[in-house]
Amino acid sequence: MYKIGVMGDTDTVLAFKALGIDTFPVKEDDDPDRILLDIVKKDYAVIFVTENIAERIGDTIKEFSAKPLPSIILIPNNQGSRGIGITSLKYSVEKAIGTDIIFRKEGETS
Fold it and tell me: Is residue 70 part of a domain?
């Protein structure tokens, strides 16, 4: 059975632990690339990654973007959004259906 996990700074991932989601806190001196690869090996289908950590491991995340699993979803941390997650979601929607139906303003054509 596939699982859901979240990796990011400790303060942010603790909120997910209350929901029963497996958490993988990343400290400043940890290697987030290694942590993500370890999570992937454990059959996680959905991995939420905070945007601040995603900035450090962008190349590793890109390796999984063309694969069906895991789905890596970028989320803001407890300090707020950096806009990376929304940009990634917009790209995924455009890639999937060929147009931006979520963020396009009324009257715009794509």
Answer: yes
